[in-house]
Amino acid sequence: MRILGIETSCDETSVAVVDGMRDALVNLVYSQVDHTRFGGIVPEIASRQQLKKLPPLYIQALHDASLKLSDMDGIAVTMGPGLVGSLLVGVNFAKALSYSSGLPLLGINHLEGHIFSNYVASPRLEPPFIALIVSGGHTVLLHVRNYLDYKILGQTRDDAAGEAYDKVSKLLGLGYPGGKVIDDLSKKGNPNFHKFPRAFLKDKSYEFSFSGLKTAVVLYVKEKGPEFVEENLPDICASFQEAVVDVLVSKVMLAAYNLKISKIVLAGGVAANSRLREKLIFKSEKKKIEVHYPPPILCTDNAAMIASAGHRRFEKGQKSDFSLNAYPYLPLSGSN
Ligand code: KG4
Ligand code: ZN
After folding, report:
1. Full set of structural domains in the chain with CATH
2. Is residue 292 a contact partner of residue 263, using CB atoms and an 8 Å limit?
3. Which residue from 86, 172, 270 has its CB within 8 A of the most atoms of ligand 1, so it is best to mutate?
4. Is the pLDDT of residue 260 over 90?
5. Residue nearest to atom 23 of ligand 1 (CA)
6. Ligand 1 mutation pick, 30, 180, 301, max ligand atoms within 8 A of CB
7. pTM here?
């Protein structure tokens, strides 16, 4: 079964075709750059860009795959969570394709898509596993019991991990988005230069909180002054990153230990973080736990993950009708 996937939930426009659940024939991703000068995503600009980029990207994707719309068996589109204007562009485009071609349509939860990015990346990966979705908008720890059966163990109470990276980057004058810049600079820095707070919350909690860490960096930078910050930038970045990574790694390991699961899966933009991968692999090896994470193109928002999740749901006989809408707040609900 070949599925066309469409993803427009935030500031990436993506169109993909999968053949089977795990084989991405094409996965084109356009990342908007217009937000850089504003230091964060401007929703109005994001949706206008989606409108401009989606039609040519769709044509390009079919061209690259040497396929026609009539060669598809279904159309899967992200229906939420995300920015409502951006989501609406993808949902309406998918509805129009479905109406004109007669192909079945299916709305997919963006977070479910992030989990499925790992099935595309790792051909032999099977549930059950512990999944950590860490991106600019989400920090969610899940017990994936089966392909479409999840239990949310915990999530962030305030900022997402990627959001903390982006805010700290802005504060340090490193631009937006900040994850990769901080990751790269940290490689030259000392992670023990300054001990920033780690919010483990109450004992054995699977919940996260990153806004206190962000405030601690703000206060530290204010106290030390611009000259000190400039001179010690890699050390400050590495120390901030270590605080984020310590919390993420310890909670994932705790979940794997408590639920007796020997497989951990990372997803979302922050899953590209080199220190997170390094530390998680180091801790896991000792406990004989497998760690999976996708390559960067499948970490970031992409349509292959949406098409892959769609494939699984189409196989189960599911489909949406034309009342399908965009849902900015859409909880991930585990079911079969
Ligand atoms: O999944 P994604 O592309 O979009 C959202 O759904 O948010 O994630 C983007 C986020 C941004 O906050 C960005 O700063 C962060 O992922 N990010 C990273 C790295 N690469 C991207 N964070 C830490 N280390 C990285 N290497
Ligand atoms: Zn995402």
Report:
1. 2-115+298-315 (3.30.420.40), 127-293 (3.30.420.40)
2. yes
3. 270
4. yes
5. 179
6. 180
7. 0.95
